[in-house]
Inverse folding.
């Protein structure tokens, strides 16, 4: 349904109306919506702010988490420590598993995309993870990205064209560069990027995540 803890936790609802907080574990927030709202405001510190003309936009919670997130000693066995930091700040954690049914159902009905196993496994672990854009542009250490397959909701023709160019079936997994590049995955787990033309971003999903979190400005902070 949304997020809490400044974006660090997801809020989900079950069929009986109970709300839960989801991060590295599932915690019952409240058994009713009213109780959940009371707790979110009183305990979770959820904020509601009004836009003020001329006032600077508040910093995205991602950038605060990036400076405080803790990595594990054996990070290098899967990817570099910086990749681990960015992914954790963006909402990922070891053992993460989120439902993919909603994404799969919506894209099947609207774009006739059929989710393959590689995309399903990837989105279960990394769906909704991302690194947001911030101003000024030259302060961005990495290119902005969002692993949300619904960003391709109305662009089935573009994904089909990219797939034809790549010579493989592609399933959308998100975008990067402020919506200028689609990210899509083939059945073998390789990740491709593009908009008018397509190229292989990486042969595996883990390598693709390393590419997405590689610094474009080595000295940026």
């Amino acid at each position: 349904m949304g997020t809490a803890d400044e974006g660090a936790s997801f809020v989900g609802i079950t069929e009986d109306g109970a709300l839960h907080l989801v991060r590295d574990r599932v915690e019952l927030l409240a058994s009713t919506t009213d109780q959940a709202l009371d707790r979110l405001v009183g305990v979770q510190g959820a904020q509601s702010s009004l836009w003020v003309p001329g006032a600077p936009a508040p910093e995205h919670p991602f950038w605060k988490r990036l400076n405080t997130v803790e990595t594990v000693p054996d990070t290098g066995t899967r990817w570099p420590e910086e990749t681990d930091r960015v992914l954790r700040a963006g909402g990922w954690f070891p053992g993460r598993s989120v439902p993919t049914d909603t994404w799969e159902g919506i894209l099947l009905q609207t774009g006739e995309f059929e989710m393959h196993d590689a995309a399903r496994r990837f989105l279960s672990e990394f769906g909704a993870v991302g690194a947001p854009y911030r101003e000024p542009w030259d302060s961005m250490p990495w290119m902005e990205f969002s692993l949300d397959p619904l960003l391709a909701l109305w662009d089935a023709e573009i994904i089909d064209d990219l797939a034809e160019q790549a010579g493989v079936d592609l399933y959308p997994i998100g975008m990067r560069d402020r919506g200028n590049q689609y990210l899509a995955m083939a059945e073998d787990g390789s990740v491709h990027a593009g908009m008018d033309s397509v190229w292989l971003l990486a042969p595996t999903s883990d390598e693709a995540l390393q590419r997405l979190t590689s610094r474009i400005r080595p000295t940026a902070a």
About this structure: Confidence is low (pLDDT under 50) at residues 44-51. Helices lie at 33-42, 61-66, 81-89, 101-110, 117-126, 156-166, 205-212. The beta strands are 2-4, 9-13, 19-22, 26-30, 130-131, 145-146, 170-176, 181-186, 191-194, 198-202.
